[in-house]
Amino acid sequence: MSSYYITTPIYYVNDVPHIGHAYTTIAADVLARYHRLRGEDVFFLTGTDEHGQKVQQAAAKRGVAPQQHVDELVIRFEQLWKRLDISNDDFVRTTQRRHTAVVQEILRRLQAQGELYRHSYEGWYCLPDERFWANDEVSDGKCPECGRPVERLSEQNYFFKMSRYRERLIRHIDTHPDFIRPEARRNEVLGFLAQPLGDLCISRPRARLPWGVPFPFDDAFVTYVWVDALVNYISIPGYGTDEARFARWWPANVHLVGKDILTTHAVYWSTLLMALGLDLPSTIYAHGWWTVNGEKMSKSRGNVVDPGAMVDEFGVDPFRYFVLREVPFGHDGDFSRDAFIGRYNSDLANDLGNLVSRTLTMIERYCESRVPQPGPEDDFEELVAATAREVDNSLRDFQFHRALQEIWIIVNRANRYIETSAPWTLAKNPSARPHLDAVLYTLAETLRHIARLISPFMPQSARAIFESLGLADVPNGGPAAWGVLKAGHPIHKAPPLFPRTVTPHPVRIVMDIPEPTVAVSPTPQLAPIGIEDFAKIDLRVGKIVAAERVPKSSKLLKLQVDLGTETRQVLAGIGTKYDPEALIGRLVAVVANLKPAKLMGLESQGMILAAGDKEVASLIGFVEPVQPGMKIK
Ligand code: ME8
Fold it and tell me: What's the whole-model pTM score?
């Protein structure tokens, strides 16, 4: 059986667990669940980083011993992961003996191999980041990374000869395109390595910082918190203690991290592994950063998104769905309640929730709550098989949002199938019985496949669908083949999966098509262009989230358009046709790569497509559901 080992960062136990921590952990959970579903042997590790100066100080402030402090704080992470249905196989705490013993063993080995040296060092120290900076890296007495004040420190310390691995690491990155992902991050690391690489200070004097793993051969020092923390990835699967187990899991398939800690992973960790003679992980994937309503999240701003509160209000699965659907993995994203509610209502309540409840209601009503006889199934077998392949490709590429988009194509197709086949009409005509049965069978079996496909993302909803289909006891709702549901099998209608919630503003999906109000000009008017010229235009679906008139202009409107990953200001000459308020929530076609231009002193960062000549007759809209950011081709 092939094995799959995936990790998250181990989070600082002092932090309040927020949407950022939940994001990485949910993404790792989806991959772990997906690989289990494929029959692989999975080890999914997360945990907490419990040593270091910040913990020591926070404990002192509370007047408790550091160990008591971390024992109390770790519960917040453990409970949140339970709440979010995280299926981790182990939870490491860096204060556990099973971990600290391995940290010490590694230091012993490195010392014995001549990888360490002791050296007197003077530099600028950033206390919150727990790291030294050289003179030329610091300006105005501020940490170049976090901007907080640094202090001058001079001390003896142990150093790891990291610099000697620079060339080898560059070669490894060059020859392993999947090692650092996404590609932009890989280039960042190569850029970092193009500069000279220093050695790494890996100790802290115990006199200044007692809360750390003691150096095994020098009592005066404890281990630098990052070296301590990184070692968790090998200490827990058995390095130095259980070689057979270690060989089963190492090298890890994926270290999932945020972009903030890419260097520590790609450079410090990789070089340490090289010094230990160990293979490097197959992939370090650095995802993007969440902001909240466009602002950095911070306790002082009071805008930290508490996943627990979101779960209380909307349920676990909508939260899991939203964070992975809203933002392409690897990109930065912005959290807003409006965006959350918008997606909840459209994708979950409207699309998936309706499909489930309509299908089950009709089987209850027309088939006495039993799975009807199958018949010709209008291409759904092919569609679900093709989607399963696409989901596989997308997840191998960490493109969670794309996998979900693919699944929603089936959801939407099935909803349309209900409309076009109109079972309520078939039910009135006894000779249409076989057709009615075939339609409802297709819908029930399609639901089973949808539940299988969403199960890594939304395990509770998948379970609820399986239960409704009478498959509660069948692992994963049965195999991936078509036609597993048997005619006559009882089904049970359940309460709605996603009860509708408050809409922040109306989202229009189907556009009115007004009569043309202007004369139509003859075609063609322009010289022909090749497809390669057309391909230069980046056309996207946009959603108008704000609109106002530009003062002193009857025509110009200033729009804020959500393009899925960012919001753009676009000026459009449509003010004689449309009132700004009527445009909020409207989905439009946007030229996303138009050079910014100034109109009446305001910048316009794109163009909205409309039909018409001098006068606009209609904005271009969409008949089927689409999402902001989708490509138009
Ligand atoms: O760095 N957006 O722990 P940490 C997205 N202990 N992800 C975010 C985020 C945000 N706004 N905020 C946090 C540490 N994260 C070390 C790690 S590993 C050997 C040691 C996520 O508590 C993201 O995964 O600061 C980021 O890398 C991690 O939390 C940092 O967690």
Answer: 0.79
Residues in contact with ligand 1 by the CB-under-6-Å rule are 9-12, 15, 20-21, 23-24, 49, 229-230, 257-258, 260-261, 289-290, 297
d(CA 507, CA 585): 5
Q: How far is the CA of 533 from the centre of ligand 1 (A)?
A: 43
pLDDT digits (tens, 9 = 90+) for 303-329: 888 899 899 989 999 999 999 999 999
- d(CA 41, CA 27) in angstroms, rounded, equals 18
Testing ligand 1's pocket by substitution, the residue of 7, 11, 298 carrying the most ligand atoms inside 8 A of its CB is 11
Q: What percent of the chain has pLDDT over 70?
A: 96
pLDDT at 524: 57
Alpha-carbon span 167 to 174, nearest angstrom: 11
Q: Which architecture does CATH list for 531-619?
A: Beta Barrel (2.40)
Tell me the CA–centroid distance for residue 196 and ligand 1, in Å. Answer: 27
Q: What share of the chain is helix, strand, coil (3-state, %, to 5)?
A: 40, 20, 40
Answer whether 329-468 and 531-619 agree in fold.
no
Q: How confident is the model at residue 585 (pLDDT cuts 50, 70, 90)?
A: confident
Q: How far apart are CA 586 and CA 475, in angstroms?
A: 42
Cβ atoms within 10 Å, residue 490 = 11
Question: What kind and span of H or E run contains 545?
Answer: strand 539-549
Predicted pLDDT at 517? 38
List pLDDT tens digits, range 380-429: 999 999 999 999 999 999 999 999 999 999 999 999 999 999 999 999 99
Rounded Cα–Cα distance for residues 233 and 280 (Å) = 11
Strand, helix or coil at 311? Answer: helix
CA 421 to centroid of ligand 1, rounded, Å: 49
CA of 392 to the centre of ligand 1 (A): 27
Domain 329-468 class in CATH: mainly alpha
Numbers of helices and strands, H then E, in the chain: 22, 23
Strand locations in 554-627, DSSP E? 557-562, 567-572, 587-591, 597-599, 602-604, 607-608, 610-612, 616-619
One-letter amino acid at 36 equals: R
Distance CA 580, CA 551 (A): 13
Q: What are the residue ranges spanned by the domains of the chain?
A: 329-468, 531-619
Burial (CB count within 10 angstroms: exposed 0-12, middle 13-18, buried 19+), residue 614: exposed
